[in-house]
Amino acid sequence: MPARAAQRCIAVLGGSFDPVHIGHVRLAEHFITLLQPDELRVIPAGNPWQKHGLQASPADRVEMVRRAFDSQKVAVTIDEQEIRRASATYTIDTLRALREELGPEISIVFLMGADQLQHLNTWQDWQRLFDYAHLCAASRPGFGLDATQVPPEVTAEFTRRRGDAEQIRSTTYGRAYLAPGLEVDISSTEIRALLQRGARPDALIPARVLDYIEQQHLYRN
Ligand SMILES: Nc1ncnc2c1ncn2[C@@H]1O[C@H](COP(=O)(O)OP(=O)(O)OP(=O)(O)O)[C@@H](O)[C@H]1O
Ligand SMILES: O=C(O)c1ccc[n+]([C@@H]2O[C@H](COP(=O)([O-])O)[C@@H](O)[C@H]2O)c1
């Protein structure tokens, strides 16, 4: 199926979100500003096979994500498909399901931070991801986007497929985009450690997410 003109554009942010933080929100907002999508689809991972187990339950992660993305300029959908799927979470399965659900005339744009770009070549069927979606990656402190930090085959694929924001918005899949300039030095790992020590990382997490963490006594041990 050749890429065709897109009627609408959906930006997709997948993640463990254990817990969701301001880095995730800023990543999404960066691409919302750039691409002006019609919808942001946030997809909490069910069973992220490259991580060593998650601390919060799927239900808690879904509720935290709901709270974190409750005031965006675009429509936001929290999509629980990966949580419903029992098997390991592979993005290729998710994008295939999204394409099936949305049909051939929607631009699907999968967003990620540079840490994931740096090992994209280890993802299941990573080159086939472009058969279903565009891929956009943003910088992250400690993780650059340039060829010295990204595996050569990933850099080659992103160079070959490079598109601008308008091409990504207006075609359905197959392009790549690198966004330097996002420098939000926050990670879930750091937040879990702070919470475990009894700190209150209110500058790192949306207020309503921190309220939920406290109410539910999450990440205390
Ligand atoms: N501060 C950040 N800047 C840019 N991208 C980010 C940032 N934090 C997370 N991301 C991206 O968001 C997606 C989901 O990340 P994830 O939920 O694993 O958070 P994390 O902070 O990396 O978690 P952990 O510390 O547990 O590994 C990934 O594509 C990741 O690259
Ligand atoms: O498809 C894969 O093999 C794959 C490998 C690693 C990560 N991902 C996806 O990348 C997104 C961010 O993952 P993480 O581990 O940073 O939370 C999330 O949607 C994961 O399902 C996907």
UniProtKB/TrEMBL annotation:
Function: Catalyzes the reversible adenylation of nicotinate mononucleotide (NaMN) to nicotinic acid adenine dinucleotide (NaAD).
EC numbers for this chain: 2.7.7.18
Family as reported in the entry's similarity comment: Belongs to the NadD family.
Pfam families: CTP_transf_like
The organism's place on the tree of life at top rank: Bacteria
Catalyzed reactions: nicotinate beta-D-ribonucleotide + ATP + H(+) = deamido-NAD(+) + diphosphate
Group of enzyme by EC: transferase
GO terms for MF: nicotinate-nucleotide adenylyltransferase activity
Keywords assigned: ATP-binding, NAD, Nucleotide-binding, Nucleotidyltransferase, Pyridine nucleotide biosynthesis, Transferase
Boundaries of every Cytidyltransferase-like domain copy: 12-193
Pathway membership: Cofactor biosynthesis; NAD(+) biosynthesis; deamido-NAD(+) from nicotinate D-ribonucleotide: step 1/1
Source organism (scientific name): Herbaspirillum lusitanum
Name this polypeptide is given: Probable nicotinate-nucleotide adenylyltransferase
Record-linked Gene3D superfamilies: HUPs
